[in-house]
Amino acid sequence: MVPTSAESRARSVQGPQARPQAPWFASGRSPLRVLIIEDDVETAQHMADDLAAADVEAAILHDGAAALAPGMGDGPFDVLIIDRMLPGCDGLALLGQLRARGVETPALFVTAMGSVADRVAGLQGGGDDYVVKPVDADELSARVHVLAKRRARPPEATTLTCADLELDRLQRRVRRDGRTIALLPLEYRLLEFLMLSRGQPVTRKMLLEEVWGFRFDPRTNIVETHISRLRSKLDDGGGAPLIQTIRGAGYVVREP
Fold first, then answer.
1. Do 187 and 121 fall within a single domain?
2. DSSP states along 181-200
3. What DSSP character marks residue 16?
4. Where does the chain show beta strands of DSSP type E?
5. What residues form DSSP beta bridges with 111?
């Protein structure tokens, strides 16, 4: 029997460009699993290769209609990476249909559509994050890990910890080794975002978007300045530095 075009598209997830699912289970570990929905074959493969270098397994679909097939867009994935301009069903409509089905998998739009109106439409249409092409490999990996970790974190968690640092999200209080640390509102938001992503690098661009609300680069050292001030306050009691700089990737909060 000759397969239908929809069946052929769905099977592309298992093709050589799609990084078949077997290694997810044969490896004896549980790496993150993402579904890339991108019509440009070369772009999709580059993203898959970049994520593989960060221990993220990626399956690929090349049109929106295939992603609506059972077990595809609603499959066992930690994050969906979606282009806005797709054949069969554009990315925004695709995500809308998945959300209507009850699919809550975090979605990251990676697209050339970069106007403010496009970004707002993507985020209001069910997207959890939005980045304009071209996207750096380290930034793509960081955004995927942050989205996956955000999904896995229990919603009732109100206290964030790292070593002897404790952030109480209800009382908006920060302590280190029992010492209360007075932070300005922006410093608190910066630390909270870093601790929500504990162990995963976050890029400067992500901090500008999530903490400052900037969808552009102000071309200043605003991030570096606030990181420096925050470090000074956290480490004032002689504790080991918890905010570390990852060259070429950004910043990470983790135990020394």
1. no
2. E---HHHHHHHHHHHHTTTS
3. G
4. 32-37, 56-61, 79-82, 107-111, 129-132, 159-162, 165-168, 173-176, 179-181, 243-246, 250-253
5. 132
Task: Tell me which residue has tokens 């772009």.
Answer: 43
Q: Which one of 131, 152, 173 terminates a domain?
A: 152
Contact present, 249 and 201 (Cβ < 8 Å) = yes
Domain span at residue 26?
Answer: 5-152
- When computed from its CA atoms, the radius of gyration of the chain, rounded to whole angstroms, is 20
pLDDT in tens, 141-188: 999 998 988 776 655 568 999 999 999 998 999 999 999 999 999 999
Q: How far apart are the first and last CA of the chain?
A: 60
With beta carbons less than 8 A apart as the criterion, state whether 80 and 105 touch: yes
Statement: residue 10 has pLDDT above 60: no
